[in-house]
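Consider the record:
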Amino acid sequence: MSSHTAATELTFVGKLILEGEIQCHTGLHIGAGKGSLEIGGADNPVVKDAFGIPYIPGSSLRGRLRSLLEQSLGLAVPSELIFLSKRKGQEVRIHQSDRPDDEICILFGRTPGRVDRVSGESGEAVGASPARLTVYDAPLLVDSITPQMRENLDDELTEVKSENAVDRITSQANPRTLERVPSGARFKFRMVLDVLCEEDKPLLARVVQGLRLLEDDALGGGGSRGSGRVSFSNLNLAWRSKDYYATGAAEASLMSAGDLGALQQLASGDLSGKLV
């Protein structure tokens, strides 16, 4: 847990800017829902922007990082979870607490109001706090889809994976198709970590932990069936102090074209002297 206490005061210190690339090592499926189906198209299309180009929504990447961190910190247990939705068959449970040193709630924010706890009595959450981590939509680097790849794709930028669910008794097949961004595709990502007090500076290490967990997990749908294996590379980290915004002071480059190992070493060290 962090060194935050109930007496910690929030005063803007600066922002850590993390940018880099996400590379797909297997096909990536982040669904767009089934609002519009085309004849001959995939049952489960990927999300695309207004120009028809796939992207990774910031909400998907941020939510996956939060989920993995909750699990790794032992917070995905009934006593630590609350309901966001209790609709039958569509329950959504996340972690939230009023503890001032709870790093998940510090990173991703907490909202006040009535909470329905998964285990224990429901009540009022009073400890509102702003989210420190912002994750932006990650656009596809279109040049990463090479001409050779395009020759073998079902669409200009995506592939269609066919799957079958087979009944164990009757052997009846239930075919389905999954649209995916192909292996080898790369996306440009950007995250911003707000540092609102001195106690926030070590939070970068927790973000890096989430990224490392994700590399050995899956992003998007179909992860247990082979989709969604990704890695992070070409990482750049910069520090922009409050003077950067107030007087135009120069930003400080903390890392350029690094990998997660180098970023974790940096984040695990003493950043206080560099974030001024």
User: Anything to note?
Assistant: Residues 58-72 form the longest helix (15 residues).
